[in-house]
Design goal:
Order of helices and strands: EEHEEEEHEEEHEHEEHEHEEEHEHH
CATH architecture of the largest domain: 3-Layer(aba) Sandwich
CATH class of the largest domain: Alpha Beta
CATH topology of the largest domain: Rossmann fold
Number of helices: 9
Oligomer: single chain
Length: about 280
Amino acid sequence: MFKIVNQRQLNDAVFLLEVEAPFVAKKAKAGQFVILRMDEKGERVPFTIADTDPEKGTVTIIIQAVGYTTKMLSTLRAGDSILDFAGPLGMPTELEGAKRACVIGGGVGCAIAYPSAKALKANGAHVDVITGFRTKDLVILEKEFQAVSDNLYVTTDDGSYGEKGFVTNKLKALIEDGANYDLVIAIGPVPMMKFVAETTRPYGIKTLVSLNPIMIDGTGMCGCCRVTVDGKTRFACVEGPDFDGHKVDFDELMNRNSVYKEEEREADHKCKIGWGR
């Protein structure tokens, strides 16, 4: 069992869980993830590691309560436990050599972008961060990003906070103003990552994206996490989750991610019934 030592609500649907997992905390690097299971009947769900504290032996994950398991996880409090917490899984993000980077997070993807920004800053790189949200009420991790970046640009679709517009608008403006990035990292909704990659493509800027295909075993054996990169099949759980954004077949990824929408709706309905809603 893995004990939850801290729980914090970041907005109406996003929650932070700090979990006691000393072996994972000791070895985890930016970009890697865990697969957890709440109980013996629970599904296996991957979560990117948002932060670690090796001295305390804790791992932080950030969840968005959108499906059955994530909604159940959002009800846990400090002192509760999770049955399985396997990791670190996947390959760390390749950050070596980057001198000037732009890290982009969209929505809850900011939780995944944060450790990359933190690691880049620790490596001595100049780090600009662009975060994107639909509205002010959804903004998360602003103080955390301020602490690990040279410049933080917050954007909202409706202009209720920060700059109005999409992350791609701000990214293009910075590039055209002479930012001279040698690395862009984009993490968030698949369409956002796709358009970030298209924004950087004409400039030849190395662009990494963190892919979120369906995952089950986390070892590459089940094949559910397969994605097409540069025309070849790759397995995100063991070869990723980061890939060259200019070579990813994003349309295929979006189609595969929607395969179980009906089952997800049914599970969500059962969750609401269980809560008496």
